[in-house]
Structures are given as C-alpha cells and as structure tokens.
Amino acid sequence: MSARRLVLVGHGMVGQRFLENIAQAKDRFAVTVLCEEPRPAYDRVNLTSYFSGKDAQALSLVPEGFFARTGFELRLGEGAAAIDRSARTVTTTRGAVLPYDVLVLATGSSPFVPPVPGREREHCYVYRTIEDLDAIKAAANVSKIGTVVGGGLLGLEAAKALKDLGLETHVVEFAPRLMAVQLDEFGGRLLRKKIEALGVRVHLSRNTTRIAAGESARHRMLFADGEHLETDVIVFSAGIRPRDELARAAGLALGPRGGIAIDGACRTSDPAIYAIGECAAWHGTIFGLVAPGYDMARVAAQQLLEAPAEFAGADLSTKLKLLGVEVASIGDAHGNTPGALSYFFSDERAGHYKKLVTSADGKRLLGAVLVGDAGDYGTLLAMVQNGLPLPAQPETLILPAHEGSKTQGLGSELLPAGATICSCNNVCKGALCAAIEAGATTLGALKKSTKASTSCGGCATLVKQILDAELRRRGVVVTNHLCEHFPHTRQELFHLVRLGGLKTFDEVLVKHGRGLGCDICKPAVASILAACWNEFVLAPKHASIQDTNDYYLANLQKDGTYSVVPRVPGGEITPEKLIVLGKVAQRFGLYTKITGGQRIDLFGARLEQLPLIWKDLIAAGFESGHAYGKAVRTVKSCVGSTWCRYGVQDSVGLAIKLEQRYRGIRSPHKLKLGVSGCTRECAEAQGKDVGVIATEKGWNLYVCGNGGMRPRHADLLAADLDEATLVRYIDRFLMFYIRTADRLQRTSVWLENLEGGIDYVRQVVCEDRLGIAAELEAEMQKLVDSYECEWKKALSNPETLKRFRHFVNTPAADPSIRFVTERGQIRPAQRQEKDAPAAAAAELVS
Q1: Which whole-number Å values give the CA distances from 359 to 334, 342, 474, in the listed order?
Q2: What are residue 564's DSSP bridge partners?
Q3: What angle do CA 631, 636, 641 make, to 5 degrees?
Q4: How distant, in Å, are the alpha carbons of 642, 644, 662 from that of 677?
Q5: Residue of 148, 267, 545, 819 with fewest CB within 10 Å of its CB?
C-alpha cells in the first residue's frame, strides 16, 4: 500500500505537535510541511525570553534530526497561496503545486490591530514572530518610551518585553481592568497595583482614536477622553484573529465569528481537510491557548491513524507569571453559572487575592481566581476538571494557615486515574503512574517521559505529589539518603558537617553514620569536606577517602596511564608557556590535544611520571587544572572587545578573573563556565553551568546549562549586571548549588528537580528570599582565600609523592603499557597490537 500524501499548512507549535503524533506511523504518510516563516516551529508561549537572552535555536521545538529521522519534508519560507479542493492540490507561495490525499490546516492566528488612524507609522509593531521581536529590539535601541496597546495576556507579555529592553513602559487598555477575560474586578485591581509597583504605567478605559507625530517623543497617542500619551514605540497586542483566509477562499464552512468550522474529529466541511489550533472554530469557539491546540493535534493524528479520538472542547484555565506577578484563572472565574456562590480572600499587604466559585449547593468547585500567589493552582484545577467534592467549608482551601490550623487541600491519592493533571500536554494521573511504573522515578525523568509540567509549569507541584504518593504506594521509601551508612541526604550531611565543624571522614561517620563507609559515601564526604574547609585533599586524614582521580590528582585513562591538564585561565596563554607544554610533551613522549575547554591536554603519562611532569609545569608558572576533580574546571571565552569588532565587553579579562576566583572549588559535580563578549555567543556560554554574555549595559547571567548526553540550554538568571553584582550572584549561586545538590548531580538536573525551578533560584540568589545571601558570599570568599594549587602542595611533601609508583616494592614502570604511533603521536596499543612484534607495532616505551 502506497503512502498517503499529507500536506500540513503551518508549522507552529500545534503543527509540530501534530507531526510528532503521526511520526509513529511515518511510513504510512508522505508528509510535506509548508512553513511561511524562515525557521521551524518555536515556543511562542515563552517568546518574551527572546528579549532576555534566549536565541531562536533555544526556543526551537523541533528535536535535533527530527525531519531526517521521519522523512517529512519541511519547506521553510514557503506558505500556501490557494487550495483546489476538486483537484486536491495546494499551490504554494512559490508557485509549486502539491497534490494531497489529506490536508491539515494549522495556519494559526494573526494579531488584531485596531483600525486606528496612524497605526501604519514607523515604529508601530505587532508581537507575534521572532522577526517582530527583532524589529522591536532594534527600535528599542533608539527609543526611550514604549507602549503596549492591550492589557490582556499577550499585552502584559509584550509589556514585560519592553521593560526588559530598558524602556519606560506603558500599557493602554480599552477595558476598565487588566486581563478582563480572566480576572474579576478585585483581581484586576490588585494586578494593576502590583504591576505599577514594578514601574509599568497602566492606562485603563482608554480608547485610542488616532496616532500622530509627537512633540517630546516619536508618537502621540490621542484618546477619546481628550487625553494623550507620548511614546517612541507602540506594540499592538490587543488579541488575535484566526488565519482562515485560505479556507474562506476555498469555500470551506467558517464559524460565526470566523475560524474554520470543525467537528469533534477536527474535520472541516470537506472530509479530506482537517483544521487544528487557533485557525479552527469548534462549535463556533476559537481557542487562543496552546493546550486546546495540542489536543486538536492529537485528535486529528489519531483520526488519520484510525484510532478513536474526539475533541470535546477545552478548559481555558491558565496560570502565568506576568511581570513577575503570579496570576491564575480557572474555569468559571466570573461566576456566570446560575446560582453560583463566591468566596473571597484578599491580603493587600502581602499582595494576594484568591476567589473560589462553587455550585449553588457548595459541593462542587466551578472556578477560581488567584493573583500574587498561584501555588494552589494545580489542586484547584484538578477539582474543577474532575468534579471532585469540596470540603464542608470550601473557604478553607484559600484561607492562610494559622498556628494550630492548616489549610485543607486535595490529596493526590484521591484523584482518579483519568484525572487531567497537565492540561497543556493532556497528561492524566494514570499516564503519570504508568511512567513511574516503567521506571521514571524522579521528577526530571517523569517530566521527560510524559511531558507533564514542561509547558506552563502550573502542574509541577501536583506532579511531584503524585510521584511521591505513587512511590510510597509501591513500597518505595521516598528518601535521598546518601547510602546505607548515612541516613541523610547530601544536603543534610553538608549542613551537619559545617555546623558541627567536622573535619574528617571518621568524625562524620562517628557522629552521623554507621559502619565503615563505602565507595559511595567516602568520595561524597570528601567532596563535602573540601567544599566546607578547602583543606589539601591528599593530606593523610583525607587521602584514603578520595576516588582514583583525586587520589593521584590526574584522570585515569583506558590503558592505565593518566592525563595532565594544566590550567589555562580564560584560554589565554603566552608563547613561552606554549613552548613549555611542547617541550614537556616531547620529553615524556605524551600525546597532546587542544580541548573544547580551551586547554591543552597531555595524555599517556605513567603514574611515576606525574610528579616529574608537574615539577616542570609548576616551575613554568602553571597550576593544576582540576580536570580530575568534581570541581570548577574551565571558564571558556571568546576574544571579546579586545580584538573582535563585534565584542562589547572584555570577555577574556572577565573569564580570567572568574577562573582565578573559582579555581579548584569542589562541588557535587564538575562545573564549567563561559564568557561571551557579545550575543553572537562564540564561547557557548548558554551551554555552561554558569554562562555570562556581554550586553551594551553590562552582563547577562545564565545558569544550569550543559552539553554532554543530555544537552540543556541555560536559563537567564539576571540581566544587564555590573561586574561586582555579577560576581556576587555567581558566588551565591555556586554556594547554593554546592549546599543543596545531591551527590554527582549536575546543575541542570538539580534545577529540573528543584521545586520552583529558576524562579526559586532567582528569589534566593537575586532577591535574597531566604536571607542567606551574605552567608553564601562569605562562604565563597573563604574558599577563594584558602586556595592552594594541589600539585604544588603535593610536590613539596615527600610523603605524598610516595604514592606515585605503580608497584609498592619497586620503582619499575608498568610493563603492560604499550603505545603505537598514529598521525605523528602516540596512542594506546590495542590488544592485538600489544601481542604483535615490537617492530611492527612501532612500540614506544620512553
């Protein structure tokens, strides 16, 4: 049976989700995707992050190699111009004619621009695509004041973007309150108060009648009440309109307010054509959120795969963080249901407002509004979606706990298997439990397996509750104990060591452990002791608990030799030091390689050679690069403003300062840093545990990125920092990670499993929510002040040097080590090469 020809028009978030849903049956379809934008699908929900440092690649929703694996054809920069339903063809904007057996329209929506005279003036924009954002960004460089027309969800997102760009920001809204669709009068009033406290001016009940040339700024916005506002940049974000022009021209049925009419199977009036996402109208309703679009994508794919599925509408509940203010709206937030009852709680001092809407008998929750504190969103949403019974006093769900009482919530154990937990990705409790059964027993693994809590993140708390409850139900003790010898987490043990002033493994074991210890707890405690007191790791009281690499201050390689990695701060090295490295490599017959971390590694050193090699290197001014330890490794840099015509800051100078500050600091896992001198990002700082990128106004700080087997783009922690503030924030971040991470946990995994994620890290590091900022900085300064090069220390101690011999009873070298030459350098001989005659193997035994 030949593959059916499927044409997908539109490659946005919903279009990509549709492709992922049919990828399992890729051999059944010959798929062509028309994408009028110059790039594949990207995350429009988090588009604002583009202004705070994320690039288009980081926003991409397309897994690497997706189109190559599936065989789907993606045509970028090519949209659809016309549909011929009788011939079943689509004519593209480049004139190509594509035949189809199935056509799927995912054309999305376009921004609504009010018909205001002057709207076509220069520096008036919409907020929809990356190209729009690039234009706004360029305009901000020559502007001081920015104004958003529209005070809804999209408008407030756009306002955050303008504020991030450093503009004096205004919001102009026609309605009498912000987010009029989602919030009631009280919620809207509190939201306005909190946003204005952040420096954004809000103008409500304002009808813009004309945009003219300004006197003190580029534009003057004239309002119907006779008032006016001067501004340099105007961004229209006053709602959306479905992109239904193709369907209209092709004669497809439309909804009463536009949009392509669809049934429960997401079919249009033509059975060969489906419509999904914001272009579709189901029973006349157009859904402007991504979650309903994802559900339509699932249903359409299931229909094509001949599996039963039906779109039955969608819940429009949403949780957002707008300009730093948590806002959530659930179900019937306005109490429009006949007989509905409302419960309110307001704390203006704390900036919290909560509202419940219940059925007339008070037994079912119909809706809710949360402003300032949306922590109960997941629980309340589950109650609404699953019709769960309310407690006898519903108000206890929103009243704060006081001494001797506690708030009532919904235990995750009471949720049925079919309860929707993540509405964005249509994940029910049963799917989460099945994933846990299959081995997803950490929050990060569960999110990766099910995609729950990977879109808006509103369900993260409930997902964690279900994970813990399910593990307990299966008899799994939910514990992070270090090992059988220490009934404590690494975080707990760290604090016990520091508060107790414990300086040796034996002291820690006697005080807080049992038994003799093991290969898990010994290196872990060694790392904690080093992070707390920074004593020499090969001192007699510490040496026996180090792992192999730390025990010999070198990385053990596959053939039993070791690598030598001297530190090259920021990647900057003098010709004299380069010559030293070359001479050392020649003298000891070592393999040399320039690494991605901008250092020169020397491989093939035998154990007894290590002190001799390092003696020469130390004499030339080198230090240990700590490539052997779970410690700060490198700070990669570009050449920055010193040489590059695009550089805006001295990235090399800062990289050297950071590497010299944090060198050798032990942590739960290795740490890599990067500093780029401009947003071209040549140092790949956004792939590092700590990344710094120069801006015209200072430095942007990114954290918790990494490459490796599970690459992760770093998150922006803070923007436009001066150097002193930047260093303080890095101090705090690193010490907070060192204090709280699990054993051998990378910063990326730590963040994924940290409740509250990057927002919580920002509160701790930048806002000092826990009141420990000064303490974290002091701890870091002690580590900085007590730094010693470990190899220099080792060379000065004859007892330490005794360990560097392969046999305890003879100084002889390991006879099993053999090399062969390849490309002019040595490499380890394979087994068959070791067994071959020495002459044929070109053996080197220098």
Answers
A1: 13, 9, 36
A2: 602
A3: 145
A4: 9, 9, 20
A5: 267
CA dist., res. 442 & res. 423, Å (int): 21
What's the CA gap between 782 and 129, in Å, rounded? 48
DSSP letter, residue 226:
S
CA-CA distance, 278 to 413, in Å (whole number)? 35
CB-CB contact of 764 with 736 (8 Å)? yes
CB 139 within 8 A of CB 168: no
Ranges under pLDDT 50 in the chain: 403-407, 837-846
DSSP track, 394-427: GGGGTSPP-TT-------GGGS-TT-EEETTTTE
Angle at 315 between CA 311 and CA 321, to 5 degrees: 135
User: Could you say which DSSP state residue 285 is in?
Assistant: B
Structure pTM? 0.62
The edge-to-edge listing of strands for the beta sheet with 80-84 is 80-84, 89-92, 97-99
Mode of pairing for the β-strands spanning 102-105 and 690-695: unpaired
Answer whether 89's CB lies under 8 Å from 103's CB. no
Residue whose structure tokens are 């006898």: 392
pLDDT of residue 469: 84
DSSP string over 538-576: TSHHHHTTS-HHHHHTSEE-TTS-EEE-B--GGG---HH
Residue 441, amino acid: T
Question: What is the pLDDT, as a whole number, of residue 813?
Answer: 87
pLDDT of residue 481: 83
Q: Enter the tokens of residue 118.
A: 């002057």
Planar angle of CA 488, 494, 496, nearest 5 degrees:
75
Instruction: Give yes or no for a contact between 90 and 80, defined as CB atoms under 8 angstroms apart.
Output: yes
**Degrees, nearest 5: CA angle 226-230-234:** 110
Amino acid 150: pLDDT: 94
CA distance 508 to 739: 17
Reduced to 3 states (helix: H, G, I; strand: E, B; else coil), residue 74 is: strand
Separation CA 185–CA 759 (nearest Å): 28
Pairing of strands 124-126, 233-236: parallel
CA dist 214 and 203 (Å) reads: 18
Find out whether 33 and 92 touch, Cβ atoms under 8 Å. Answer: no
Angle of the 443-450 helix axis to the 460-473 helix axis, nearest 10: 110
What's the CA gap between 582 and 575, in Å, rounded?
A: 11
Side-chain half-sphere CA neighbours of 25 within 13 A: 15
Closest alpha carbon to 742 in 480, 400, 546, 548: 480
Q: 490-500 and 505-512 helices cross at what angle (nearest 10)? A: 110
Closest CA to 248 of 260, 237, 256: 260
Helix, strand, coil percent values for the chain (each to nearest 5):
35, 25, 45
